[in-house]
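Work Package 4 report. The design task specified in the project plan requires that, given a folded chain encoded as structure tokens, an amino acid be chosen for each position. We show below one input record used in the internal validation round.
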């Protein structure tokens, strides 16, 4: 460790020049056009020389952790196919002799963020030990392989996949481990680098060989190629080249744990502490709760937190000083992705969703309503808010079956809406002859919503009034969320009345954008609304700009109704 001390001291001046020791002051005057043209800053510069990138580059960069949601209209295999998907969840634990078992529990708490693969890396006696697999956390880990992950520090990851092939999926399961002339290290990443293809092409031209299709592998190559002697500086150099969303945790063979979050703060990352002094980083506070860690704070946008033998308390540094952007945290964490018991971006997810439901009840009431029901599970809290504000009782008109596997056998004689019927069970005693308000978090393609309305009416509901606890989704996300292309988004192609007719509801209302803004108050500028507006805080690489421009042209007519600030 003496060598580590000398390396750290030899780079002090460089760190002082390139890092801040406290969160930067953020002002808004410099960001008037941040949603209109690509943001330009040293860490995120989109090189004008790439404006004419070859059309051979894919028009839409996707995280390798993604499974594009191509719905089979004859066989709805998963109810979630008509929802955006969060890509990943990450965990980092330092200073606990049972780090791997705590990491296992924390990953279990984050299972909702990724259900098709899980992995963990622990550090013991300067050796990185890794275990990864396909499936749920409980499928991947057991007593036997947890015993093979000793040490007092570990990082973990849960993910979604890009393809059905298990061999391809396994190669892309994180954390990724690599060796360099400075030693071995591992990384777990939640987010999406919008300049991934450009970086990968550049690295391959210089001789790098990639073994996965994950954008996260770019980070390994950038760090390995860095000439900086300090691991922290090598991460910093890599982050200067990255554009997009990233909440990452790293471990090194010499006992360092580093957590870093992009300057826009797109994806969440929190820090907590156990009674024994162990430090825990996680995507959500629900993971802290399960391992008896007390929530302390967010990892700030642009912050890099280091914990090691020298710095038992996390030491914070910040990315480059010039042009620190205004935070643009993903609002969909509060609408759909995060667990209701989590605190995300400093706000209670439960309270946010309850308030969304109250707004819907105030602005879109239904006369003569007999019951308020939710599309479980993500619509439940908003439905409770609607019921509380309207005075109409909340009832379980739909019960979700939690015992349906990822695959199932369908009878040869096709059953209409088979996938939805497997997942959602209507309660006729609640529905028969009743006028019901159905609260859901969002409508993406509209296919599942139409089947839910039909299911409720077949169960005897007299009238079905849909209330959606978010504004209409009219644009794709490029910051680590799996969303369809814009042309597949029903709100991009239809107005509210057309959608109502398509899904067969008696009425339909979305959360009004201006009320949405008022609820967030002075913090409303700190969130990303690109999926509602088509206006991006940070554009993807130049090869993708044309497709984004096309998206904005096709959605510009919707923007006036959304009433969000440009």
């Amino acid at each position: 460790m003496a060598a580590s001390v000398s390396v750290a001291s030899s780079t002090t001046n460089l760190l002082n020049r390139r890092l801040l020791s406290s969160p930067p002051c953020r002002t808004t005057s410099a960001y008037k056009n941040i949603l209109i043209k690509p943001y330009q800053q040293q860490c995120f510069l989109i090189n004008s020389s790439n404006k004419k990138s070859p059309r051979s580059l894919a028009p839409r960069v996707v995280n390798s952790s993604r499974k594009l949601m191509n719905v089979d209209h004859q066989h709805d295999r998963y109810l979630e196919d008509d929802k955006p998907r969060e890509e990943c969840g990450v965990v980092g634990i330092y200073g606990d002799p049972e780090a791997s078992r705590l990491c296992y529990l924390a990953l279990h708490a984050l299972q909702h963020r990724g259900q098709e693969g899980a992995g963990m890396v622990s550090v013991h006696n300067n050796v990185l030990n890794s275990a990864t697999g396909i499936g749920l956390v409980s499928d991947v880990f057991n007593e036997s392989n947890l015993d093979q992950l000793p040490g007092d520090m570990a990082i973990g990851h849960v993910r979604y996949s890009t393809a059905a092939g298990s061999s391809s999926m396994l190669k892309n399961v994180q954390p990724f481990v690599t060796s360099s002339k400075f030693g071995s290290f591992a990384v777990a990443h939640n987010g999406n680098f919008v300049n991934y293809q450009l970086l990968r092409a550049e690295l391959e031209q210089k001789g790098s060989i990639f073994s996965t299709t994950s954008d996260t592998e770019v980070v390994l190559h950038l760090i390995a190629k860095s000439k900086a002697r300090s691991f922290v500086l090598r991460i910093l150099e890599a982050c200067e080249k990255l554009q997009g969303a990233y909440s990452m945790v790293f471990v090194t063979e010499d006992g360092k744990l580093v957590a870093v979050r992009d300057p826009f703060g797109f994806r969440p990352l929190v820090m907590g502490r156990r009674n024994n002094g162990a430090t825990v980083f996680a995507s959500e506070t629900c993971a802290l709760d399960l391992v008896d860690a007390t929530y302390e704070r967010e990892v700030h946008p642009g912050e890099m937190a280091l914990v090691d033998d020298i710095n038992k308390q996390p030491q914070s540094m910040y990315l480059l000083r010039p042009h620190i952007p205004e935070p643009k945290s993903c609002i969909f964490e509060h609408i759909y992705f995060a667990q209701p018991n989590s605190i995300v971006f400093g706000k209670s997810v439960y309270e946010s969703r309850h308030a969304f439901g109250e707004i819907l009840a105030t602005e879109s009431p239904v006369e003569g309503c007999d019951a308020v029901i939710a599309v479980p599970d993500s619509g439940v809290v908003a439905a409770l808010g609607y019921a509380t504000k309207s005075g109409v009782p909340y009832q379980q008109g739909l019960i979700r079956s939690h015992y349906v596997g990822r695959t199932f056998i369908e009878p040869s004689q096709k059953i209409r809406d088979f996938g939805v019927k497997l997942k959602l069970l209507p309660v006729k005693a609640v529905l028969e002859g009743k006028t019901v308000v159905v609260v859901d978090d969002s409508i993406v393609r509209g296919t599942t919503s139409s089947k839910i309305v039909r299911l409720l009416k077949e169960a005897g509901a007299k009238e079905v009034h849909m209330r959606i606890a978010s504004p209409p989704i009219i644009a794709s996300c490029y910051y680590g969320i799996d969303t369809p292309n814009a042309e597949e988004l029903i709100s991009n192609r239809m107005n509210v009345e057309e959608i109502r007719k398509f899904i067969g509801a008696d009425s339909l209302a979305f959360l009004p954008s201006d009320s949405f803004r008022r609820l967030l108050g002075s913090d409303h500028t700190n969130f990303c609304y690109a999926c509602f507006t088509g206006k991006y805080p940070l554009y993807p690489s130049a090869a993708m700009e044309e497709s984004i421009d096309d998206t904005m042209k096709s959605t510009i007519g919707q923007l006036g109704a959304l009433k969000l600030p440009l």
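The chain is about 30% helix and 20% strand. Validation will be extended to a larger panel in the next phase.
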